[in-house]
From TrEMBL:
Positions of region (Disordered): 182-226
Entries under InterPro entries matching the protein: ATPase_NBD (IPR043129), Gcp-like_dom (IPR000905), T6A_TsaB (IPR022496)
One GO cellular component, as annotated: cytosol
Protein name as catalogued: tRNA threonylcarbamoyladenosine biosynthesis protein TsaB
SUPFAM superfamilies in the cross-refs: Actin-like ATPase domain
Source superkingdom: Bacteria
Pfam family, one: TsaD
Length: 226
């Protein structure tokens, strides 16, 4: 089964082609500002490089986070658009579990950047989620000891104030990890794990106090009749 894998839950956009657990192609793009414009051309480039076309794809696997609203939706909307246009299934998986599948040890902790000086975290034992995914400040992480910690390099020091780890790595989701989680889990529809409200807010309509309140209402003759 030829799968297209997509993950944009972290600052790194990860795209891949996987067939029967073999990674045929993988591309990683670290410029978050270009993810939206680069995604489709990169998928086209991978297909051409491997001798396949869109018609050969049999499924799409997409990382569902946790991740920031703006970044996460780039991959998820694209994955659903590909699946709908090609009439193939799309499966959503945890981006943290995809990272965890790459880590050595029985007990692992996956931490990713949530911005706003916060982190997302998931603790897993033998691949099963024990805590999370949750979002908090690094200082509010639960104290724990793990075999392996995956954390962005710029957050390592802050996280290690709360977590003891036998090994520390700086991993991102991979095509292999995304496909592996999808293979062993029941198919799941893509549901984004935002964990908090987006930064964007609805604008507040403010009426100047210089305008009489009655002036904001339509004249009686213009009111609609029931």
């Amino acid at each position: 089964m030829l799968l297209l894998t997509i993950d944009s839950a972290t600052p790194r956009l990860v795209l891949g082609l996987v067939r029967d657990a073999e990674v045929l192609a993988q591309r990683c793009l670290d410029d978050a500002r270009r993810h939206n414009e680069a995604l489709v051309p990169t998928v086209l480039e991978m297909l051409e490089a491997t001798g396949f076309s869109f018609d050969d794809l049999q499924g799409v696997v997409v990382g569902c986070g946790p991740g920031p609203f703006t970044g996460l939706r780039v991959g998820m909307v694209s994955a659903m658009a590909f699946a709908d246009a090609l009439d193939i299934p799309v499966t959503g998986v945890s981006s943290h579990r995809a990272i965890a599948s790459q880590l050595p040890g029985s007990k692992v902790l996956v931490v990713t950047d949530a911005r706003r000086r916060e982190v997302y975290y998931t603790e897993l034992v033998d691949g099963a989620v024990q805590q999370g995914p949750e979002v908090c400040k690094p200082a509010d992480l639960p104290a724990m000891q793990v075999d392996t910690l995956s954390v962005p390099e710029h957050l390592e020091q802050a996280v290690l104030e709360q977590v003891r780890a036998g090994k520390v790595v700086h991993e991102y989701p991979s095509a292999r990890g995304l496909a592996a989680v999808a293979e062993f889990d029941p198919p799941q529809p893509p549901e984004p794990l935002y964990l908090r409200r987006p930064d964007a807010k609805e604008p507040t309509v403010r009426i100047s106090p210089a305008i009489p309140q009655d002036a904001t209402q339509p004249p009686a003759g213009e009111q609609s009749q029931a």
